[in-house]
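Task: encode each sequence below as structure tokens.

Item 1
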Amino acid sequence: MKLNELAPPRGARKAVKRLGRGPGSGHGKTAGRGANGQKSRSGGNVRPGYEGGQMPLQRRLPKRGFTNIFRKEFPVVNIRDLGRFEKDSVVDKAKLVAAGLLRRNSDGVKLLGYGTIDYPLVLKVDRCSKSARTKVEAAGGQVEIT
């Protein structure tokens, strides 16, 4: 067998439907688009969400609240996630990103107290819960709010 002799098995490839190629093809004249109207024309269709002039759903539903465009995002890091750092190391946002615990585009980091820690670490975070601070300091580490 040669490379130029390779072919897909019979029935694996279906021929494309050739539209508008005369009455003998079975798809001539209107080419499967039905009779008249906007959708039968070339390039003719209604935009997404258009309901024929009826008030569209996105305008019928009530709007509530507002979005604060100045909102700050503080992704959380739990104490249990700090096990991947070595004893007495300084852990800041850059190290958390490198370890895969954070993405780059956040406004800061918040440390939460879920889990335990057995060895001291120096943590530089933007926010910290009381339980997290207590656990880190009980292990001999310290939390610096930046």
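Item 2
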Amino acid sequence: MNRERGSITIWMLGLCVMMLLLGGLSLDLWRAYSERRSLASAADAAAVAGASAIDLDAYRANNEVRLVPALAEARARASLANQLDRRSLRGARVDANRERIVVETRGTVGFTLLSLLDPGDEFDVRVRATAEPRASG
């Protein structure tokens, strides 16, 4: 009977360590998900802003809906620059042609608990949004 003294304490200590590790891992994964969602929101808004750069002369002349690529890229970049939450944005690439605009954003997430295994390790997050102009109605 005396040999079993303290076994509950060891089990509880092990359980607490496991809960701490699981909580830290969950925190790191939630931060990565949150940063991805923020980058996706910025990319979507920029793509929609760029898709509003319709060539009005072509639309009025022959009812053709197409983009002005330089203006679309400028509007997308301005949208990215005016985002309120830019802390996760590390870079962006904007490509436009007459049919569509593609906005790619990228960022990094620094880990907390997982950095104990590999110090300085970061998780890269990349998001891509595409928009095409369409006539209303």
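Check on item 2: Residues 2-131 form one domain. The helical segments are 7-51, 56-62, 69-81.
End of task.
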